[in-house]
Amino acid sequence: MKIIDSGRQAVGAMLENKTRTVLMMLGVVIGVATLTMIASSVMGARAQVMGQIEKWGLDQIMVDGRRWAETWGSSACPDNPED
What we know:
Elements: H1 2-16, H2 18-56, H3 65-72
């Protein structure tokens, strides 16, 4: 019986505070839409990067840490033997 009473009280509060209820629902809708757009953007970017990697082939990609250290300075490279 407590659950039914709580439900009635909640519905009554929503009907009494219509502006608050509408603003809350609007906030939830905007939040869900934002998260959906972010998730789809990340998935699309990942698919695009993976497509490029497949197009080029894994043996064609090379990462060179020395160029990064030259650009940002030797102290920024954690594996720098000079420090």
